[in-house]
Design brief:
Blueprint (H helix, E strand, L loop, with lengths): L8 H8 L3 H14 L3 H17 L3 H17 L3 H17 L3 H19 L10
Helix pairs in contact: 1-2, 1-3, 2-3, 3-4, 3-5, 4-5, 5-6
């Protein structure tokens, strides 16, 4: 039987429809059941966005810290770009504009390199 994973898409859809609490519960539930680090990357990116939207800076920051740890273990340009952009978003949400700008400046050339000719820029890059 083919099993399709609906997360993080469903959690992001809930966020887009204005049901922040449902989105938060869904993404936290998905993270609790995910053990593969590379699968967790998608969930952590969505968690950062959802938690920032709900004002949970600590939760978004924790997602970013875990994302950076995964990047340290599985270093690719795409993962580094996503981690830098997520870090910038968290710092901006925390009101630390200078740190946000530094992280986002690190992300920009990585996103350009990573997306050039292979992938259109998306939510995180």
């Amino acid at each position: 039987m083919l099993r399709l994973d609906t997360q993080p898409g469903m959690a992001l859809a809930r966020l887009a429809h204005g049901t922040q609490d449902a989105a938060t519960v869904a993404i936290r539930h998905a993270l609790a059941g995910a053990t593969d680090p590379l699968h967790r990357v998608r969930l952590l990116l969505a968690a950062g966005e959802i938690l920032l939207a709900g004002g949970d800076w600590d939760g978004a920051g924790a997602a970013g810290v875990e994302l950076v740890a995964i990047v340290d273990d599985h270093d690719t340009t795409g993962l580094r770009a996503m981690a830098a952009q997520a870090t910038g978003a968290v710092r901006l949400g925390e009101g630390v504009a200078e740190e946000a700008l530094t992280a986002l400046r690190q992300a920009r050339p990585l996103c350009t390199t990573w997306t050039c000719g292979t992938r259109r820029p998306g939510r995180w890059c």
